[in-house]
Amino acid sequence: MREAGGEQRPSEAEWDAAVAALRGLPDRARVLLACHVNPDGDALGSMLGFALGLGRIAGELRIERLAATFPGPMRLPAPFDRLPGVELLVAEADADPAPDAMLVFDVASIERLGGLAERLLAAPVGIVLDHHASNPGFGGISLVDPAAAATSVLSDGLLRRLGVPLNPEIAECLYVALATDTGSFKFASTTPAVHEFAARLIATGIPVGEISRRLFDTRPVGALRLFGVALARMVLEREGAGGLGFAWTYLTLDDLAAHEQPPSAVEALIDTVRAVAEADVACVVKPVRPGEWSVSLRSKGAVDVSAVAVALGGGGHRFAAGFSSGGTVAEIIDAIRALLPAAAHQG
Q1: Which residue from 74, 75, 63, 69 is spatially nearest to 43, judged by alpha carbons?
Q2: Does 151 share its domain with 275?
Q3: Per the domain annotation, does 4 fall within a domain?
Q4: How many domains does the chain have?
Q5: Are 237 and 245 in contact (CB under 8 A)?
Q6: Closest to 283 measured CA to CA, from 330, 246, 237, 313
Q7: Are residues 172 and 260 located together in one domain of the fold?
Q8: What is the pLDDT of residues 5-38, one digit of tens each?
Q9: Which among 16, 92, 159, 197 has the fewest CB atoms less than 10 Å away?
Q10: Same domain flag for 130 and 248
Q11: Does residue 81 lie in a domain region?
Q12: Rounded-to-integer distance, Cα 169 and Cα 201, Å
């Protein structure tokens, strides 16, 4: 899917190494797939789409056990709980402790794997598929392309090289990944090649209208009311981010409880905050559990928010990044605020 110009990443040698590693698995191989903590549409779609494809050639590759997981509680946020392949998911505690091969998807830094990181490092075959520029290249075989609009581009690339054709189930997962990470094809990462990829996926017969409604136009009333709470307390710092503008807000566990919503219900809130005309940078601080927060950052392009996220222990790319943190909301915002001017100079 790479467009003309620029260095080829991954190289053909790296693709070949990944294919050879999977074709060289031992008899009765155990394969574990994983994505990052608090998975989004790209993480889950890329992983499950690849899992379904790998399942189609499991006999050829001598795979006896194939499962997928992610760190933390095995809770799937709507609408991702209806993705094809969810039956392959197992809780972290039940995942194979010593797989013959482990593939990880959409993980910008090994810390985002939590307790699963040790399994990746110990696995005889470790393959990382990712599109974040901040990815340092961990794992035995690194298939990382910062120019890719979504990790699903890498999943598709490896499936094609393994000789796995698309079917509607695989295509739906990869389409969900692509649509979510391009903001329903609105972000600057939406290139002609992205539309060509989407066309191949749509050609399998997936119900695009239904998928889009599920992803972008369906929210529980409690979630919408939570958005109202967060937007009412939003702060606009016009001189923030080196004068480019910084808009931020937060929610608490008490807010979630009052509206009977899980933490995943506010994942899409960042897209609304990002719409603020006076700010290049948007931030939402979301509660995970007492004393623990998940932070989403977005930029319209003038600020490299991945530089901020990496400095604070997370990762991402220029337009979208995130990290996990302890402390208070004020401390988190102070830390971000201090890093934004330098990140603006990188924008």
Answers
A1: 69
A2: no
A3: no
A4: 2
A5: yes
A6: 246
A7: no
A8: 446 689 999 999 999 999 999 999 999 999 998 8
A9: 16
A10: no
A11: yes
A12: 10
Q: What are the structure tokens assigned to 233, written together?
A: 């307390």
Q: Which of 215, 232, 265 is the last residue of a domain?
A: 215
Judgement on whether residues 274 and 329 belong to the same structural domain of the protein: yes
End of a domain among 215, 231, 250? 215
Boundaries of domain holding 31:
12-215
Domain contains 62: yes
85 within domain boundaries = yes
**pTM, to two decimals:** 0.89
Instruction: For residue range 250-280, list pLDDT tens digits in order.
Output: 999 999 999 999 888 898 899 999 999 999 9
Domain containing residue 312: CATH number: 3.10.310.30
Cβ-proximal residues to 138 (8 Å cutoff; 6+ apart), any chain: 109, 110, 120, 128
